[in-house]
Amino acid sequence: MSEDKPVVPEDKQMAEPVREQVWPTFLFFSIVIVIASLGAYLMADYLWKLGWTFSSTILWVLFTILFSYLSFGFTHAFTGFILRRCGSAIAHMPSSMRNRDEDPEIEDGTRVAVVIPVYNEPVERVFAGIKAILESVDRTAHGELFDFFILSDSTQSEQWIAEQAAWVKLQRETGKGNRIFYRHRPDNLNKKSGNVSDFCRTWGPHYRYMIVLDADSVMSGETMVELLMRMEANPGIGLIQTAPIIVGGESLYGRMQQFSNQLYGPVFMEGLAFWQGRGGNFWGHNAIIRLQPFMEHCELPELPGRKPFGGHILSHDFVEAGLMQRAGWEVWLAQDLGGSFEEGPQGIIEAAQRDQRWCQGNLQHGMLLFAKELRGKTRVHLGNGILCYLSSAIWMLFMIVAMWKAAEQGIESIVPNKGSAEGFVLLGLTMFLLFTAKLFCIIDLALDRERCKGFGGFINACTSSFIETILSALIAPVMMIFYTRFVIYNLIGRSVGWSAQRRGAQGTSWDDAFAAHGAQSLIGILTSILAILIDPILFWWMSPVLIGLVLSIPVSVITSRLDLGLNAKHDGLFLVPVEYDAPREVREALDFEAVERKEFAGLTAAVLDPYLNAVHVSLLRKNRHRLLRGSKVYGDVDESKIPNEEKCDTRRYLAGRLLREGPSSLRTEEIFMVLSDIDSMLLLHREAWLRPDSYLAPWWRRAIKEMSASI
């Protein structure tokens, strides 16, 4: 990065901010409250006629929470459908946020940093995506305003060197070395939010805007420029969040999630944008941020107490959006803007592993729910995130109480009989809310012929939606058990680690499925037996949930398979518009060939390859002030085991041992330590090429011969 700092325009809050209309939010939540109140009344009336008991009180409270959450989701689909069909008649907000007839004038010095945090991600996929995005934005008239930053937090030494080599290759292929930067951060302090904060402190003053992407994100150049134009046209907006489209579905599960996102997503996103207005949310990626207010107001506090609820905030994005709004800046959802993509998990277990991290972060938000000066919409977003996971535990508790009540008062206490009109009305209303939301999306598709083509026609879309509904019904109880376990783990103080997300359809083995779902299947079997003993009718009443639990192992394996995903694609099942007419950026990002690297290939290249060694050392020099010393981060090195004749420091000793005994003689953290030291890397490169063979381990002798032969 050049030492000459460009003059970046100063952002100031609008002197007279646009007054936001409150009626959309009032109308939306009025509908939610009316529906929820109706359900709560019908349930109370039903339980009262059966004879109110203590279990009735618990059942009613749990039902009211679940039914209200169901009403909240239904209202998104209802309002979204109405707006998409009658949008011109209900101009609730300027959805484009600017006059599309003319582009705003971009102030001198305006630049955009495209930030891609990575953490032990597949190198080829990450850099294929970056190249596709870079070339896409360069095809626009404003490509020169965008610089790219790969912010690595990778903890694997081979991953680190592979990223550097890929960065050098990308610079050579694109000829844009002055706009593509790489930084490796060895300490991983505060995880992803700390990674982005480190960027803001170091390079933030050079840029007016920041587009944050995930390692699997893809965004078209046109979309990036449009985000820039919307920010320039609206000086009061601090953040614009796009609605990413899921792509890259390979397994049956991946294709199902991709289909659901692209069929149902537009309707639900329109409903979300309707009530949140200028008080939107941030999902951590595929968004543009005004850097100056972000750096001034969005520094995350440390929560009091011990983990998992105390300490650093894990789900930082929700909180950052709330802090931005608290400071007077607007946060928008660009639900009308396409060209924003991301990949999703390819199996149930991968989805659960991802949600385990999110669960802890969202439950943490309970510490902030009633924090001072947060806007009401921010509290709704935080509460919704909490309920997303807590509702599964409530659902499970509801089933337990229902079985208790059936055993206590008979099956009639929970299953409507012929004389219970309230019970059947309540059941019908619940089914209506569950399935009508999807029906709105199907009708919306039927009324859009062009969009319908992308799903293989209306009949094909309906068939796929029907199969998706069945599979979702089987998977929902499985995720209920997962989420309930995650919630319990957090309540008893068990924190989760920070692991890299698995990419691609690797498939779930039967052993892995048994380990992950064995307890769930057992719960399903035992609950089925208990339900039959109480009353066979209770078993049939609960069978939609119990079947999913009993079949969790085969469902997990089958839905994760790549071959079934390919067969579904061949047969047109779960076909989506992105496959029907794939954008160029998506095709290029997903068109990469994974490379199988030999053991210690990255370390060998960093030591022996003169160019890569020089690049690595140069980056270490630039990063010197970030490096932490010694065993503080990378693991304890027992100084007593260092021979007395070795008077050099720990790194020099490890470098010498690396040459004499080979890479396998060092622990992972010791190799990382050597790679982090400038003097050690210079020493290794010089000694490996100049020392006689008798001094070098057989590993290095073979590696030198192979490299010499390839030159």
Automatic annotation (TrEMBL):
Glycosyltransferase 2-like domain boundaries: 114-296
A single GO cellular-component term on record: plasma membrane
Transmembrane segments: 22-43, 58-83, 382-404, 424-447, 513-534, 540-559
UniProt GO molecular function: hexosyltransferase activity
Annotated InterPro entries: Glyco_trans_2-like (IPR001173), Glycosyltr_2/OpgH_subfam (IPR050321), Nucleotide-diphossugar_trans (IPR029044)
Membrane topology listed for this record: Multi-pass membrane protein
CDD domains for this protein: Glucan_BSP_MdoH
Alphabetized UniProt keyword annotations: Cell inner membrane, Cell membrane, Glycosyltransferase, Membrane, Transferase, Transmembrane, Transmembrane helix
UniProt xrefs under Pfam families: Glycos_transf_2
UniProt pathway annotation: Glycan metabolism; osmoregulated periplasmic glucan (OPG) biosynthesis
Localisation: Cell inner membrane
Main location: membrane
Coiled-coil parts of chain: none
Top-rank taxon, per record: Bacteria
Family the entry assigns: Belongs to the glycosyltransferase 2 family. OpgH subfamily.
Protein name: Glucans biosynthesis glucosyltransferase H
Organism: Oceaniferula spumae
Protein's gene: opgH
